[in-house]
């Protein structure tokens, strides 16, 4: 497992800690979730772009529908 150090303003750091506390998770776990979501969104965008370049709008729209249902819960 990798380690990453980030620098944040103190007020941002404090707000993120409070957010993690309200979710009942650690700050590390919350950043892991944020990272996973960002990677998933980027991968989905890449798949959509590839499908549209291939000219299959139907498959691309299905991918967007999956994203909508996943992230609008």
Write a structural description.
77% of the residues lie in helices and 0% in strands. The model has no long low-confidence stretch (mean pLDDT 88). It contains three helices and no strands. The longest helix is centred in the middle third of the chain and has 27 residues. It is mainly alpha-helical. The chain has a domain of 39 residues.
Please give a handful of descriptors for the protein shown:
73 residues, mainly alpha, 3 helices, 77% helix, elongated
How many H/I helices?
3
Determine the fraction of residues in helical runs and give it as a percent range: over 70%
Number of strands: 0
Task: Give, in order, the helices and strands.
Answer: HHH
Tell me the Rg in angstroms.
17 Å
% residues in beta strands = under 5%
Largest sheet: none
Structural class: mainly alpha
Query: For the terminal residues, how far apart are their CA atoms?
Result: 30 Å
Mean pLDDT: 88
Shape: elongated
Low-confidence stretches: none
TL;DR?
The chain is mostly helical and 73 residues long.
Set down the secondary structure blueprint.
Elements: H1 10-23, H2 27-53, H3 57-71
């Amino acid at each position: 497992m990798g380690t990453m150090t980030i620098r944040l303003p103190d007020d941002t750091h404090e707000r993120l800690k409070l957010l993690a506390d309200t979710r009942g998770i650690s700050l590390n776990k919350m950043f892991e979730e944020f990272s996973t979501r960002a990677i998933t969104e980027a991968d989905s965008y890449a798949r959509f772009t590839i499908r549209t370049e291939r000219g299959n709008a139907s498959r691309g729209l299905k991918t967007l529908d999956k994203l909508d249902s996943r992230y609008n819960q």
